[in-house]
Amino acid sequence: MPANRSTLLRRGTAVVAALPLLALAACGYGSESKSTNSKEKVAAGSSEIDGLASVKIGYFGNLTHSTALVGREQGLFQKELGATKAEYATFNAGPSEIEALNSGSIDIGWIGPSPAINGYTKSDGKSLKIIGGSASGGVKLVVNPKKIKSLKDVKGKKIATPQLGNTQDVAFLNWIADQGWKVDAQSGKGDVTVVRTDNKITPDAFKAGSIDGAWVPEPTASKLVAEGGKVLLDESTLWPDKKFVITNIIVSQKFLKAHPKVVEAVLKGSVAANKWINANPTEAKAAANKQLEADSGKALPANVLDPAWSSIQFTNDPLASTLNTEAAHAVKAGLLEKPDLSGIYDLTLLNKVLKADGESTVDAAGLGTN
Predict the structure, then answer these.
(1) Do the beta carbons of residue 249 and residue 133 sit within 8 Å?
(2) DSSP state letters, 287-329
(3) Exposure letters 132-162 (e unless 16+ CB within 10 A, then b)
(4) Which residues pair with 60 in a beta bridge?
């Protein structure tokens, strides 16, 4: 079944079309991120891969994208790319990163599952492929303990999510439905008021009392805790084995076809980054924070960094079965008609890298390229 037959969003194209326009108005195609980090310099005597001068890599400035943060800060991508220069752009929202991928402003990116699904289905399965996993977990429901003392107290309150139709928004709407409560997905009005709020301003809104809590990724969740909030629910507890995809690696299909060796080199850097993170968690946490500071001008304080870091698992496995479940949650919420995700994954190069590194290969849960 062609992907475009089953993927138009209901009530217009609110998630896959309107949100990219809103995000682009806010932050364009992302911010070019430059660095004087000596580890990012091209090694003397190295050569370009396939004669390609550069590869453009995108990621978000948050801890759930730490594979990219650490891989960059430690120079692991550049090491594998030789004289093909790694160039970077940072993003605040998934739709804008998808637009950047579609326009050729980036070639490869770290991104959440919902924008990856939307980007794939909106393009009739032609724009991108998910080529690897990166992280699991790191999402929490944090509330004002004076107003909300138990899960049942969430009813009637104002709870923020980052964006209409984003990964956390879909998860929260699904959780609401599981409680037997009713909310209109588009307006956010109902038994719970869902307030779509940029992660950058959510802590201020929480502090001011304009929201009673938020279902958000790290480090925003720990920022709310630092403002007096309490973790009421860790989303990982809702999933089998407490694992669910929060960050994937995607690539432009055009770039993958033209430059597979460059894509393989980036994946080698990603696998090396995750291996180093899991073997050296304290040093890796510091490296991620150092890159965040280089990108944004501000490092995270220890009371935010430490609890945020401990709730994220870094993995090369894309946890494909959970992507399919997250898509089903969007359908259940009324944000998406049943999508055809067949072929969204191409894990060929990742499994090649993993096998060469002595690691276990990963599975596409029936959604891989034939």
Answers:
(1) yes
(2) HHHHHHHHHHS-PPPHHHHHHHHHTEEE-S---HHHHHHHHHH
(3) bbbbbbbbbbbbbeeebeeeeebeebbbbbb
(4) 91
Residue closest to 215 by CA, chosen among 173, 155, 156, 153: 173
CB atoms within 10 A of CB 366: 11
Q: pTM for the whole thing?
A: 0.87
Residue 132 to residue 136: CA distance in whole angstroms: 12
**Cβ–Cβ < 8 Å for 126, 75:** no
What Rg do the C-alpha atoms of the chain give, in angstroms? 20
And the tokens for 208? 């001011």
Query: pLDDT tens, 334-355?
Result: 888 889 999 999 999 999 999 9
Give pLDDT tens digits for 178-227.
999 999 999 999 999 999 999 999 999 999 999 999 999 999 999 999 99
Residue ranges, the chain, pLDDT below 70: 1-31, 33-36, 38, 370
Rounded Cα distance between 176 and 171, Å, is 9
CB burial readout 217-239, b (16+ within 10 A) else e: bbbbbbbbbeeebbbbbbbbeeb
CA distance readout (Å), 9 to 15, 46, 56, 115? 7, 47, 30, 13
Cβ-based burial of 38 (10 A; exposed 0-12, middle 13-18, buried ≥19): exposed
Report how far residue 175's alpha carbon sits from residue 159's, in angstroms, rounded to the nearest whole number.
12
Give Cα separations from 20 to 166, 170, 186, 296, 318 (angstroms): 11, 17, 16, 22, 24
- Residue among 27, 196, 30, 13 nearest 110 (CA): 30
Q: What is the pLDDT of residue 43?
A: 74
Phi, psi of 46 (to 5 degrees): -80, 160
- The pair of structure tokens assigned to 115 is 């924008």
